[in-house]
Each structure stands twice: as C-alpha cells, then as structure tokens.
Amino acid sequence: MEQMTNYPLLVTEIGLLLKQGREKAAASVNTILVQTYWQIGRHIVEFEQRGNEKAEYGSQLFDRLSNDLTTAYGKGFGRSNLLYMRKLYLTCQNSGTLSHLLTWSHYYEILKAENELEIQFYSVQAAKEKWSVRELKRQMKSMLFHRLALSKDKAGILKLAGTGHEVLTPEDLIKDPFVLEFLQIPEQQKYLETDLEQKIIDNLQHFLLELGKGFAFIARQYRMSIAGRHFYVDLLFYHRILKCFVLIDLKRGEIDHQDVGQMNLYLNYFKKEEATEGDNEPVGLLLGAFKDQILVEYATSSITNQILLSKYQLYLPEKTVLTKELNKLLED
Q: What CA–CA distance (Å, rounded) separates 308 from 49?
C-alpha cells in the first residue's frame, strides 16, 4: 500500500529525468550540427583555395554542390545554407569559439550581418541573453548593435563587439533611439501619452526586450504623495543588476527642462521614501519623440541625480543612415 502511495512521486521523478535527458540530447545534437556545418565550410574553403575557385555568389560550385549533396543526403544543403556554412568557417576559424548555446538557426540569422563586428556582437549577445531565434531576428532588424555602438568611441565599439552589451553603470541602460515598432502606432498618427503608455503595457514583453537585461516591472502610474499633492510616474521598474529603481516618464513630443525638473523631484522622493538598505540611488529615464542636445546639457548640468534622456521611434531606423554614422566612428 505504501508503495502505491509513492507511485505518483516515481512517475514525476522519471518524467523529470526524461525531460532533462531530452533537453541535453537536443543541445548535444545542435552543438554537433553547428560543428559539422563549420567543418563543411572549412572543406569548401580549402577546396576553393586549392583550385583557385572564386567564391562569388554566382559561382557554379555552390549550385553543383547543392544538387549533389541534396540528391545524396536529402534536405539541408540548399545553396544559401552552403554559403552560410562557408561564411561560418571564415568568420570563426577557431571552432572552439562557437557557442553551444546557439543553434544553426541562430547562426544562420547572425551570419546575415554585413560585417565581422556585428557578427561577433550578436553571437555573444544572443548566447548571453539566451535569445530565441525570433528575439534575435527582432534585435537585428532593429539595428541593436548600431544603436548601442553610436554612443561609444572606437575602442568602446570594438569592446562591445567582443564582449557584448554589459550593464555596469546607469548610462549603459541607454539606447538612442529606443525602437518601439512593436506598438504598431503609425508614424503620423496622433496619440496621447496615455495611449503610448497603454500600448507599452499591452506589449510589456516586447518592451522589456527592448529595454534590455535586468528590468523587472513594478507598476504603471505609480503614485507619490508629497506635501499633500499626488504625483505619478508613468512606469516603474527595478533593475536587478544595478540594484536600483528605474523611473520612466513618456513624452509624446520633445523633452523640455520642466520634464527634467519633475523627474528630479521624483528621484529625490524615491531616495528618501522608497529606497531600502542595499538599494543604489534611483535612475530616471525620460523617453521623448525629440530631444534638444543643448537644452539637455543645460537642464541636467547641476543635477546630482542620475537622469537619462533618450528618443524613441515608432518605426525601425534606417539601416543606411546608422551604418554611415557607425563607419565614421570606426574611421576616426
């Protein structure tokens, strides 16, 4: 009788073992597949070098190889797949640098990047953040690497590509601009700040992905009672890496000096009334459709609180513009 009482526990334990085993098997298969494709890429490159074959997209080698391998071994050897296997080897000539956390589907997307710095960055960041392929595609489409790189100098860009985006200071929270295309608000549509806030709440998972690692949502329209008056911050988060509250106010138009002053008031309140032992000083983030750099400089120059200002866009940034700006930084 006692054995039958413990029977459900037996089923649960076996189920957990099966789940863990299958996950390890899947991870192992993915690792072996990526390594195999890397080896295929190496053989293709070595064949080209021996025969002085020009590795152009129009090369007949890939058409012939695709047909022969597909006939012999089935699907998975399309022309584009073979080209990316070759690119995988050329980009990562040490197979030990390949991540066991990334599948071939991840690498297939990452290798679409146009330069080595982007490929390095997305390889590191996708593994570090454990992005799904869908999340990876969204981050690449929104030009995440370019948006982060444009706030750095040349040395900072090279470090970003090599180690990924690390949040060590409040300034590391900034992307300029933040891209909110997932809200699906047409660029010319008239909307209120409350509409923007509601859209963000409705798409909170996407918004957290855009904000980056470490954000935990606490509340919207968080109330602060000061001297008998009530004030409300649009969105309140806690950042588990920086160990501080992050207050976000949304502005439909341009950020002005009054917005900065109001955020300073909120931060002073949070330091005295909300922070507990172990918390670092709170950070304020003002997100507006526009910002004037000179006004920002004067408005924040004498403020000791950490107030960050950034633009948001309701559409994906223009790749050619960001690429041109990034190339200027790299040339300096």
A: 52
